[in-house]
Write a structure and sequence with these properties.
The structure holds 2 protein chains of 2 kinds. Chain A contains 10 helices and 14 strands. Chain A is an alpha+beta fold. The chains are: A alpha+beta, B alpha+beta.
C-alpha cells in the first residue's frame, strides 16, 4: 500500500480528501455556490458579461407554469429540459425530434407529452435537486455536435471540461457520449474521456471505465490525437466564465456547437477528479505551479498563456 | 496533513484520555465490567393525577430473602409524603398527601437475584407457626378451599400423603399447569377457572392456592416482576405453599417449583396487586429495568466517587430511563467515527451520511442476520412499489408519502408475522428510522435510474457493510460500559474525528480508482 501511495504521490494525483480540504473548501467560499449551483443564475451572470451560453427557450418555476413551458416549446422540434439545480447531469431530458405530441429521446425511445409534463413537474418538486428543495425546470436549445467531433460521438453532445484554478486553466478533457452512456457526457455512466493538451488543443489519451481506449466503442474511430475544433475560444470562455463566478477552483463545461461555436454549458464548484485519469497526468504539480507563478491582476489572455505554458512543462516532465 | 487540525485534535484526544486516566489510575474506577451475574436496577415510575383531594398511592416494595438481595433504594415523592409500612414482613411504600394535578413519583432499587436455585426443604415434618396457619389456611371468597368441587378434586387426584407433602404439592401444581389453559383474558376467579378449564395467570394461581389450602397447606398468592434487559418489566403472579419451614414458590404458568427462576423478582405476597391507590382521578405506572454490569461496590465507586466534582456529574445517579437512553446515545460518536473512517479513509460511497448509523441503531435489539433481512425485505418491497409508482407519474412529495406508507405497512406486516413466529418486539424501538428507509428507497431508485443499477447496488452494499461494522458497537457490553462510565472519551473521539478531518492524503479506494498511475507505463499506456 505504501508503494502504491508513493506512486500516486509521485504522479501528482489529486485525491478527494485533498481536493475538498485544500482546494474547494479554501478557494470556493460557500456564499458563491449559488452562482454555479443554479444554472439559470449562471447563465444570467455569463450573459451580462457577454459570454455565450446555450440559449434558454422557456422556464417553469412553479407547477402551474409547466403547461406554458410545453406550449412555448411547441414551435421547436428538438430541445433539452433541465433542472436548474441538477448535479452530474441528473434530470436532463433530451428531445431529438418530435411528431405531434410524441417526442424522440436519444436511443430512439419515444415518449408522449404527458411524460414530458411529468418530468418537468418532478424537476420542480425537487426530485433531481441536490438537497431535494423545490427547483426550477427550464428548456434549452438542443446543441448540435460539431462536424469535427461527429465521428467520435453517439447519441449526445460531447463537452469540453476545463479545470480553472485561480483564473488559470490547468487541465482539460473532452467527454464523448456513447450508446451505453445514453448520450450523456458522464464518465461513470460509460462516456469516453479524452485528455486535451491545453497548448495544442489535441487529445493525447483516452479512457473508458478507467481503462485506456484507442477508439470510440460505438464508431471505432480513433479518439487520440484529434484536434478539438475552436479549442482556443473554448478555453477563453471557460476562463472568463470562471472569472465571473469569483470561485478559485472551477470546472467549466463548454460545448462546441455546430452553429453557435463554443458555449458555456455549466460551471461546477466541485469538479471531479477523473480528468486526471483521462489525461494520465496528476493535477497537483500544475496546481502548485499556478500557486508559484500567478500574479494578481493578470488579464485572462496572460493567464491562459500561463496555463498552456504550465501544461507544456508538465508534459515534458519539467515540473517538480 | 492539516497542522491546525492535527494540533486541535491531539489536544482534545489528550484531554479526554487524561480525564480517563485520572479516573482509572488515581480514582481506581474499573475500566471493564467485572461481569456480575443477575444484578439489576429497577425503577418504578408512577404518574398520579388528582383533583385536590387527599389520597395515597401504595406500592409493594421488595424485601430481601435468600433468593434476592435488595439495596440502594431511592425514591422521589413530588410534593407528597413518603413512608414505608411493614406488615407481616410485606414492605409497602406509601405516598400520601393532597393530590393536585399530576404527581410524578418513583422508587428505585438494585437487586441481586440468586443464580442457583434454592434447595428443597428437608425437614418436612415441621409444623407451621400459628400466625401463618391463621392467615393462610382459611377458605375465603378468593380462595374457596371449602367448596365441594375443590375438596373433591383434591381427594381424587392428591389424597393426603403425610410422608410426601412435596409430592402432593407437585401433583396439584401439575394438575393446574396441565389441565387448565392459560388465557390472558381468562377468568381471575378460582372456581370459574376450574369449571371452564381456562383462566388467567391470577385465576390459575388462585385455584392452586385454593387446592393447596384444601390439602391443608398454608398457601398464598405472590406477585413480582420478570426482569428483561432494556425492556419494561412484566408483572406476574404465582402461588406459594408453606412446607418444611419455609414458603415454597410454585407457578402454574411459568412452570417452576421450589425455587424462583433467576429472572423473577418477588415484590409482594398475599395479593396479586402491586400498586393500589385511593382518592385519585387516574394513575399510570411502569417498571423500568436495566441490567447492571458492575458489582455493588463498583457501582458505588461510580455513583459516589471520592471526588465531589465527579460525584456531581456521575451518570450512574440519573434515573434508569435516562441512563438507558444515554447508554445508547454515548455509542453514537463511535458510530460517527466508523462512518468517517469508511468514507474518508477507505472511500466508500453510501446513501446518506449517517444512514448506516441509524440502521445499526435500529437493529441493535435484533440479531444482525434477522435485522438485515427484515430491513432488506422492507427495502426490496419499497423498490418494487417504487417501480409501479413510477408508471403513475406522481409528484415527488406525494410519491414519497406513498413510499412511507409502504414502509409502514411492511413493518406492520412483519410485526404480525413476527408474533406468529414468536419473535417478539420486532420493531419495539421507536427509533426505527421509517423516514430514513423511505429516503433510502427513493435514493436507490433515482441512483439506479441515473447511474445504473450496478452503482445503486454497490452503494447499498457499502451502506450495509458500514451498518454491519457499527452494529457490534451497540451490542458490545464492555464498550457500552466504557462510554457510559467514561463519557470523556467522547471528547477523545472528537479529537480523532478532527485529525481525520484534516487528512488530505489518498483514500484507499483511490488507489484502485487511479490504478493507471500506479502501474508501470508499458502496462497502463497504449
Amino acid at each position: 500500500v505504501t508503494t502504491l501511495v508513493g506512486r500516486l504521490r509521485a504522479a501528482g494525483v489529486l485525491g478527494m480528501n485533498r481536493r475538498n480540504a485544500v482546494f474547494t473548501l479554501h478557494w470556493n467560499p460557500r456564499r458563491l455556490y449559488p452562482r454555479v449551483d443554479d444554472k439559470l443564475e449562471t447563465k444570467r451572470l455569463l450573459r451580462e458579461a457577454g459570454i455565450p451560453t446555450a440559449p434558454v427557450l422557456a422556464v417553469a418555476r412553479v407547477h402551474s407554469e409547466v403547461r406554458r413551458l410545453l406550449q412555448e416549446l411547441d414551435s421547436y422540434s428538438s430541445f433539452v429540459i433541465k433542472p436548474a439545480h441538477g448535479a452530474m447531469g441528473n434530470g436532463i431530458l433530451v428531445v431529438f425530434e418530435r411528431d405531434g405530441d410524441w417526442f424522440r429521446r436519444p436511443g430512439g425511445r419515444w415518449i408522449d407529452r404527458r411524460a414530458l409534463f411529468y418530468h418537468s413537474a418532478s424537476i420542480i418538486s425537487g426530485a433531481y435537486a441536490l438537497g431535494g428543495q423545490p427547483d426550477v425546470a427550464f428548456a434549452e436549445e438542443r446543441l448540435e455536435v460539431h462536424p469535427d467531433l461527429a465521428a467520435i460521438t453517439t447519441e449526445g453532445v460531447p463537452d469540453v471540461r476545463v479545470i480553472v484554478y485561480r483564473g488559470v486553466p490547468v487541465m482539460s478533457m473532452t467527454r464523448l457520449p456513447t450508446r451505453r452512456s445514453r448520450g450523456r457526457a458522464n464518465l461513470h455512466q460509460g462516456a469516453v474521456g479524452a485528455g486535451i493538451e491545453l497548448d495544442t488543443g489535441r487529445t493525447n489519451h483516452a479512457v473508458l471505465d478507467g481503462r485506456p481506449v484507442p477508439v470510440h466503442p460505438d464508431t471505432q474511430e480513433g479518439v487520440v490525437g484529434r484536434l478539438i475544433p475552436e479549442f482556443a475560444q473554448a478555453l477563453e470562455i471557460a476562463v472568463r466564465a470562471a472569472d465571473e463566478t469569483e470561485l478559485g477552483y472551477v470546472g467549466a463545461d463548454v460545448v462546441i456547437d455546430a452553429h453557435h461555436g463554443p458555449l458555456v454549458l455549466e460551471l461546477n464548484a466541485r469538479p471531479g477528479l477523473a480528468i486526471q485519469i483521462a489525461n494520465r497526468m496528476g493535477l497537483v504539480p500544475r496546481l502548485r505551479a499556478v500557486d508559484e507563478r500567478v500574479r494578481p491582476g493578470l488579464g485572462w489572455p496572460e493567464r491562459i498563456a500561463l496555463g498552456c505554458e504550465i501544461a507544456r512543462l508538465a508534459r515534458d516532465g519539467e515540473l517538480a | 496533513l492539516n497542522r491546525a487540525a492535527a494540533v486541535a485534535g491531539s489536544i482534545l484526544m489528550a484531554l479526554g484520555l487524561s480525564i480517563f486516566a485520572w479516573k482509572t489510575l488515581v480514582l481506581k474506577l474499573p475500566v471493564l465490567p467485572s461481569n456480575v451475574e443477575n444484578l439489576w436496577r429497577v425503577e418504578l415510575e408512577i404518574e398520579a393525577r388528582g383533583a385536590g383531594q387527599r389520597g395515597s398511592v401504595r406500592a409493594a416494595l421488595p424485601s430481601p430473602d435468600p433468593e434476592q438481595e435488595v439495596f440502594d433504594e431511592r425514591q422521589s415523592s413530588d410534593r407528597l409524603v413518603f413512608t414505608i409500612r411493614t406488615e407481616r414482613g410485606q414492605r409497602t411504600g406509601v405516598w400520601s398527601g393532597r393530590f393536585d394535578g399530576v404527581h410524578s413519583i418513583s422508587h428505585g432499587f438494585r437487586v441481586q437475584l440468586a443464580d442457583t436455585p434454592l434447595a428443597l426443604p428437608t425437614d418436612l415434618a415441621q409444623k407451621p407457626p400459628k400466625e401463618i396457619v391463621e392467615a393462610y389456611t382459611k377458605s375465603t371468597s378468593r380462595f374457596p378451599s371449602d367448596s365441594p368441587e375443590i375438596r373433591e378434586l383434591v381427594s381424587s387426584i392428591a389424597p393426603p400423603a403425610p410422608n410426601d407433602p412435596l409430592g402432593q404439592m407437585r401433583t396439584l401444581l401439575g394438575y393446574v399447569t396441565d389441565e387448565i389453559l392459560t388465557v390472558a383474558t381468562g377468568s381471575d376467579d378460582a372456581l370459574l377457572t376450574l369449571s371452564s378449564g381456562e383462566g388467567s395467570a391470577l385465576g390459575k394461581s388462585r385455584l392452586l392456592v385454593s387446592l393447596l389450602r384444601a390439602a391443608d397447606f398454608p398457601a398464598r398468592i405472590a406477585a413480582g416482576l420478570r426482569l428483561r434487559a432494556e425492556k419494561d418489566a412484566r408483572a406476574t403472579v404465582w402461588a406459594e405453599g408453606w412446607v418444611g419451614g419455609r414458603w415454597l414458590p410454585l407457578s402454574p404458568t411459568l412452570g417452576f417449583f421450589g425455587a424462583r427462576p433467576p429472572d423473577l423478582l418477588l415484590l409482594k405476597f398475599g395479593s396479586g396487586t402491586l400498586i393500589e391507590e385511593t382518592g385519585l382521578e387516574a394513575i399510570s405506572s411502569r417498571y423500568r429495568v436495566l441490567r447492571e454490569s458492575l458489582d455493588a461496590k463498583e457501582v458505588a465507586s461510580f455513583m459516589v466517587p471520592s471526588n465531589p466534582l465527579l460525584a456531581a456529574v456521575s451518570l450512574y445517579r440519573l434515573p434508569v430511563g435516562s441512563q438507558a437512553a444515554l447508554r445508547i446515545l454515548l455509542i453514537l460518536p463511535l458510530g460517527a467515527l466508523i462512518i468517517t473512517i469508511f468514507r474518508n479513509l477507505v472511500g466508500l460511497r453510501t446513501f446518506g451520511t449517517f444512514m448506516p448509523l441509524l440502521i445499526a441503531l435500529a437493529l441493535r435489539e435484533l440479531s444482525l442476520s434477522l435485522g438485515l433481512s427484515l430491513v432488506g425485505s422492507v427495502i426490496a418491497l419499497g423498490i418494487v412499489s417504487r417501480l409501479f409508482l413510477d408508471r403513475l407519474q406522481l409528484l415527488l412529495v406525494p410519491r414519497l408519502g406513498v413510499l412511507l406508507c409502504v414502509v409502514v405497512l411492511a413493518i406492520t406486516a412483519q410485526s404480525l408475522i413476527g408474533r406468529s413466529y414468536e419473535v417478539k418486539d420486532l420493531f419495539a424501538s421507536v427509533l426505527f428510522p421509517v423516514v430514513i428507509l423511505t429516503m433510502l428507497i427513493e435514493r436507490f431508485s433515482i441512483t439506479s435510474a441515473e447511474e445504473g443499477v450496478g452503482a445503486a447496488v454497490r452503494r447499498l452494499a457499502a451502506s450495509t457493510l458500514i451498518a454491519t461494522c457499527i452494529y457490534p458497537a451497540f451490542r458490545f457490553e464492555a464498550l457500552e460500559h466504557l462510554m457510559f462510565g467514561f463519557p470523556e472519551l467522547v471528547i477523545s473521539t472528537m479529537g480523532v474525528l478532527i485529525v481525520i478531518g484534516g487528512y488530505t492524503g489518498y483514500r484507499l479506494a483511490e488507489l484502485w480508482r487511479f490504478r493507471s498511475f500506479t502501474r508501470p507505463p508499458d502496462e497502463a499506456g497504449l
